[in-house]
Amino acid sequence: MCLAVPGKITSISEADPLFRMGTVDFGGVCRDVNLGCVPEAGIGDYVIVHVGIALSVMHENEALAIRDDLRKLLPAEQEPSP
């Protein structure tokens, strides 16, 4: 099963619109993500990410609710630190 997760864009590299990259914060874990599919996304926006590609921009409330629900699925000993 594949899973897409929400994260917040913290920086963007504007080098090439098609291969635009950004750093996305997934609740304390930051990863480089391809932003080519979401040209409208900006710093501070929340995006849904699958295999390193941001698929769509989403509302902050929805992103935080999904992140909270995903954390509830983790056993207590595997919960990420704040």
Automatic annotation (TrEMBL):
It comes from the Bacteria. One of its GO terms (molecular function) is carbon dioxide binding. GO terms for biological process: protein maturation. InterPro entries: Hydgase_assmbl_chp_CS, Hydrogenase_HupF/HypC. PROSITE patterns: HUPF_HYPC. It holds the Pfam family HupF_HypC. Belongs to the HupF/HypC family. This is Hypc hupf: hydrogenase assembly chaperone hypc/hupf. It comes from Akkermansia glycaniphila.
